[in-house]
Amino acid sequence: MKKIFTIFSAFILFSLILTACGENKPAPSPVKLGMIKHLNASEEEFNNFTKEISSTLSLNLTSYNPVFYDNLNSMLMALDSGEIKVISTYDCVARYITARNSKYEIIKDDTLEFIDAFCFAMREDNTALKNDVDKFIDDIRNDGTLSQLTKEYVTNVKNSDPPAVEIQHFDGADTIKIAVTGDLPPLDLVLANGQPDGFNTALLAELGKRLHKNIEIINVDSAARASALMSNRVDLIFWAIVPVSEIIPADADKPDGAELSTPYYRGKIVHVKLKD
Amino acid sequence: METVYAIFIKDGAWLTILKGLWATVQISALSLLFGTILGALICILRVSNFNPAKVFAQIYIAVIRGSPVLMLLMLFFYGIFARTDLTPITIAVITFSMHTAAYVAELLRSALMTVDKGQVEAARTLGFSKVQAFQLVALPQIIRVAKPVYQSTLINLIQWTSVVGYVSITDLTRVINNTAARTMQPMITIIGGMIIYLALSYVIHEIFAWTEKKN
Q1: Domains parsed from chain A with CATH numbers
Q2: Who's near B185: CB < 8 A, 6+ residues apart?
Q3: pLDDT at A160
Q4: Measured at the alpha carbon of residue A272, what is the angle toward residues A184 and A152, in degrees to the nearest 5?
Q5: Which residues of B86-105 are buried (b: 16+ CB within 10 A; e: fewer)?
Q6: Which residue in chain A has the smallest CA separation from B12?
Q7: pLDDT in tens, A59-103
Q8: Could you give the CA distance from residue B161 to residue A189 in angstroms, rounded to a whole number?
Q9: Domains by residue range for chain B, with CATH
Q10: How is chain B classified by DSSP, letter by letter?
Q11: Is the pTM of this model over 0.95?
């Protein structure tokens, strides 16, 4: 009996030693990363893109667990509450955030180097407008207006609001209706007096001036942009495309029945977190 | 305090917030008015002995109460009324009136069921006309029973209207969201917005309490 007890004890001890030796350190859990929802590419599609990018470009994206939000406000509130640890946004937006709220900081040494291109979206049957908008973007790029507007409304915007935009009115001219969201400063914001402002609005003022058309700005929730366009409520909306080689096609997030213009701005994606 | 001033007061921000609040009040008040009238009509159909009318009212109540108000609003704005000249506020009022009507119809029906038929019959035997019996005997009881639920419906209605930003209306919620995005102080701004909504609910509570006292 004593022999059996000794053998059994030795077996238990041996098993414990083996278990302890074989124990691996738990893998670090992925960092919860807040991202703005892509409107037409589903979260599942986006996760597939992420996996494909990870394997093709040898980037360690799996260390992030993306959590999708409707807008920047809800994403920042999730960051404040500790629900997520990091948010992903455009460099100009990140600079705007950190300039206005000192509790946030941009993560400098990040390995992700994605660049989103911003463009207009219009209904695909509206070819005249697409041609006009493409020509407008080419023109303002070539004559330096685009860089000037970028400097004035994006680069130089620090602690103060961007300059107010004045949209000219042309008597008897046609009107282009455009949806803005007001929730992506300094590209798209609404001033304290309720007037739409920012880089996109400045671009619209220039568009109206060059096409000699009136611009009607309609403030809609960002999730309703595609519906507003496809139901003819507006003629143009702002859109971002994510061209990462051929893994994410440029039209991955494009609404059906819509056409995208030439990109007018490129924004690098950076990460923002709460200061330690 | 400086941050609160910068968010809610500076550069005319308070005026923009008031304009947003006015849009919320306007949509809620008009929807309550039309929703109550429509709800009373639906209630009449619902309790009538004419079967097709009864079935219609039942279907209306089931469909409208079972649909999220945001979906209904988007369906009307971006679908059914997309090619009309109706303003976004008019479409919002139509949507919320229809939505409120379904709730009002049911609350009126339940209030109606609490009235003892015998009382109305007794009034009729005492020489009251049908209208008089309803107005003097049934109606006061219906109002007394329906009032607390009606108050909740109104408060719910105000909260439901917070989705009108999806149809290009700048209401209180939309202004608060825009302000939060501009100032990058979402937590403080949204708490401020909540306080305004709470104040609005409190005003309604006080109005109802005052009418109680008056009676």
Answers
A1: 31-106 (3.40.190), 115-268 (3.40.190.10)
A2: A100, A101, B3, B7
A3: 81
A4: 45
A5: bebbebbbbbbbbbbbbbbb
A6: A193
A7: 666 677 888 888 899 999 999 999 999 999 999 999 999 999 999
A8: 22
A9: 2-214 (1.10.3720.10)
A10: -HHHHHHHTGGGHHHHHHHHHHHHHHHHHHHHHHHHHHHHHHHHHHHSS-HHHHHHHHHHHHHHHHS-HHHHHHHIIIIITTTS---HHHHHHHHHHHHHHHHHHHHHHHHHHTS-HHHHHHHHHTT--HHHIIIIIIHHHHHHHHHHHHHHHHHHHHHHGGGGGGGT---HHHHHHHHHHHHT-HHHHHHHHHHHHHHHHHHHHHHHHHHHHH-
A11: no
ipTM above 0.85, yes or no: no
- A174: alpha, beta or left, given left = phi > 0 and alpha = psi -120 to 50? beta
d(CA B17, CA A270) in angstroms, rounded, equals 32
Q: Tokens for B34?
A: 């039309």
Tell me the count of A-B CB pairs closer than 8 A. 98
Chain A hits for B92, CB-CB cut-off 8 Å, are none
For residue B105, report the phi and psi dihedrals to the nearest 5 degrees. -60, -45
What are the Cα distances from residue A67, in Å, to A43, A84, A111, B120?
9, 8, 19, 61
**SS3 category, A101:** coil
Token couple for B150:
């009606």
Closest CA to B182 of A149, A84, A160, A218: A160
Give me the residue label for tokens 């607390």: B148
* A136 contacts chain B (CB < 8 A): no
Q: Do B166 and A220 touch (CB under 8 A)?
A: yes
* Residue A214 structure tokens: 């009136």
Going residue by residue through chain B, which has 215 residues, state the pLDDT in tens, using 9 for 90 and above.
888 998 999 988 999 999 999 999 999 999 999 999 999 999 999 999 999 999 999 999 999 999 999 999 999 999 999 989 999 999 999 999 999 999 999 999 999 999 888 988 898 899 899 899 988 998 999 989 999 999 999 999 999 999 999 999 999 999 999 999 999 999 999 999 999 999 999 999 999 999 888 77
Among the partner-chain residues B16, B166, B178, the one whose CB lies closest to the CB of A224 is B166
Averaged confidence pLDDT in chain A: 84
List of chain A residues whose C-beta atoms are within 8 Å of the C-beta of residue B168: 179, 218-220, 224, 228, 233
**Given this model, what pLDDT does residue A161 score?**
84
Answer yes or no: do B183 and A100 touch at CB < 8 A. Answer: yes
For A45-187, where are the E strands, in sequence order? Answer: 64-69, 86-90, 104-106, 115-123, 175-180, 183-184
